[in-house]
Amino acid sequence: MIGDKKVIFSGIQPSSDSITLGNYLGALKNWVTLQDEYNCIFSVVDMHAITVRQEAAQLRKNTISLLAQYLACGLDAEKNIIFVQSHVSEHAELSWILNCYTQMGELNRMTQFKDKSQKHPENINAGLFTYPVLMASDILLYQADLVPVGVDQKQHLELTRDIAHRFNSLYGDVFTVPEPYIPEKNAGAKIMSLQNPTAKMSKSDPNPNGCIALLDKPEDIIRKIKRAVTDSEAVVKYAEGKDGVNNLLTIYSAVTNTSIKDAEKEFEGKGYGDFKLKVGEAVAEHLKPIQEKYEDYMKNKDYLESVYKNGAEAARRVNRRTMAKVKKKVGFIVD
Ligand code: TYM
């Protein structure tokens, strides 16, 4: 807790030029609603991104672009601490220490490691394997109470809690044990691919029509949603086995702020053609002001630089005590 408010930490990898609609609905959109009630710390986690090979100049561009996307979605740099992970070296420092308090067997069980090793068989590096420890360090360094993420990060959060418990049981109450903050399934916890609605929407979808990017043009958004895979029942209803329709209803209800029930009523008796067009238009309309703000922020590189510089300083101020305490507990000489 900082002051009388609980602490929130979360981050997104700058691994492409635009985040996906899944990142937005599963995480970023919720961060915006939490920023008044909590002390929030949000990071552009570039150190995580290099677990997969990146082109250096492109990673730098993506990092600035993601910062601008954070702000364009409504994160307020005055209210929150917003910074770039690699600017705050304590993340790497704590990560090394916590690596020594994490078991190989625990990391072996991480499903994301298994998935990513399959996708990048040519580069199964040790960073990819120990990545969840870096994520645990991000969170524990700030004594975060809550971590707002999509459901795919749940296993990493459970590991974070296990590491925190282990460390605390050895050394006393050093870390706050964080709770996950995950939306309901029908509220964006896992937005599915438009082309394969049993798989998570992701930038690495083999079919580019499966994924909507936050910065996609309105006509592309509408076209991709028009082509979304549904079913042959032609009834707009949230139900078991209707993965494609469920996904579109979830997206529609999230971007229009209506309940699934009201959305079902709105589309009663309508065909999938009408439904998809409405969903596409609603998404495009929701993203339009965000995209406009994004363009404005990207024109103001000095401002973006001031945000990440101030953010890194503020992050260091918050993590200093925890870092010193950890070093002392493990037996390092601390001056
Ligand atoms: P990343 O960069 O893969 O994704 C960022 C956030 O977006 C969520 N998300 C989704 N939510 C719903 N539907 C989807 N299809 C979808 N795809 C992604 C993710 O759950 C995540 O919340 N390891 C993290 C980044 C990270 C982090 C942290 C998060 C590093 N350190 C500390 C929280 C706290 C990751 O790779 O997320």
Description:
The protein is mainly α and 335 residues long. The chain is 53% helix and 7% strand. It has 13 helices and 5 strands. The strands form 2 sheets. Strands 1-2-3 form a 3-stranded parallel sheet. A two-stranded parallel sheet has the order 4-5. The two termini are 25 Å apart. The site of tryptophanyl-5'AMP (TYM) has 25 residues, from β1, α1 and α7.
Topology, element by element:
Layout lengths: L6 E6 L8 H14 L4 E6 L1 H4 L6 H17 L8 E4 L5 H10 L4 H5 L2 H9 L6 H15 L5 E3 L5 H18 L7 E3 L36 H9 L16 H14 L3 H7 L5 H27 L2 H30 L5
Parallel strand pairs: 1-2, 2-3, 4-5
The structure holds tryptophanyl-5'AMP.
The site of tryptophanyl-5'AMP (TYM) has 25 residues, from strand 1, helix 1 and helix 7.
Oligomer: single chain
What CATH architecture label of the largest domain applies? 3-Layer(aba) Sandwich
Number of H- or I-type helical stretches = 13
**In total, how many domains does the architecture comprise?**
2
The CATH class label of the largest domain is Alpha Beta
Main structural class: mainly alpha
Low-confidence stretches: none
Work out the number of β strands. 5
**Shape by Cα distribution:** globular
The name of the CATH superfamily of the largest domain reads HUPs
Beta-strand proportion: 5-15%
Q: Percent helix among the residues? A: 40-55%
CATH domain fold name of the largest domain: Rossmann fold
Note the run of SSEs as H and E. Answer: EHEHHEHHHHEHEHHHHH
Gyration radius over CA: 21 Å
Strand order of the largest sheet: 1-2-3
**Which hetero ligands occur in this complex?**
tryptophanyl-5'AMP
